Description:
The structure is a homodimer.
Chain A: H1 8-21, H2 25-37, H3 41-50, E1 55-56, H4 57-64, H5 68-80, E2 84-89, E3 92-97, H6 100-113
Antiparallel strand pairs in A: 1-3, 2-3
Chain A binds a DNA duplex through helix 5.
Amino acid sequence: MNTDCGHIQEHEETVERAKSNMASNFKIERMCRSFKAISEPSRLRIILALMEGEMCVYHIVEACGGTQSNISHQLRVLKDNNIIKSRRDGQNVLYSISDEHVSRIIDISREHLDC
Amino acid sequence: MNTDCGHIQEHEETVERAKSNMASNFKIERMCRSFKAISEPSRLRIILALMEGEMCVYHIVEACGGTQSNISHQLRVLKDNNIIKSRRDGQNVLYSISDEHVSRIIDISREHLDC
DNA sequence: TTAATATATTAATATCTATTCATATGTTCA
DNA sequence: TGAACATATGAATAGATATTAATATATTAA
């Protein structure tokens, strides 16, 4: 491998910009964890469901299918990554999308893939 | 588990909307694959680098670090998921972000996580 | 306080994924 | 044509992740 790709000048400049704008490892990993959280079908279903409104676990199970245990695991992952938030209401725990960035990202993706 | 969460009416309505707006399994999996593609540090680094401009493989390696082989594997994953595109130019292959949706999603995420 | 209900956690396993090393393919130029 | 270079691929393995079943915790109401 050498640099003689016939675009040395532009590419070297791009490399420099890329290096100086590159997020830190810490931030890269943080972003990745967020994207990974929404990268599994059962979790994405939960997000899409919650984009329709706040729900308790029982109703999330009803809307998304799957077992209570599995949904609960996925809710945990989503919450740990600040994708969703929860509040207790008596015996129930109500979940909702934690902030608008999430919905925007999902909407762009749906638009992009025509979903 | 039963439905008696004290929010039966609203939740049932939300469940109905969620079910009727829920993307098909096929589309859910397609979205998930896209998100998964951008969910690994080395791949996200490549995307961030290419957001600065088109580059050949050698320069991507220079910008992102890692081995040529690994970068090449990751480029493949990104390309298979239409995150990036490539064109051959002589001995080199030049990669770039495949469309603006990708950059928008990454930008929102950076803004969200303050990266 | 006990029973009933809703949700969360733990541990086990099966599956998936990233990374590495070795090698193959494709391109240019002598 | 063959040598040199740029990129891609295949196979192996180590590590991560999803799913399940069983059980624990938390809340309410009797």
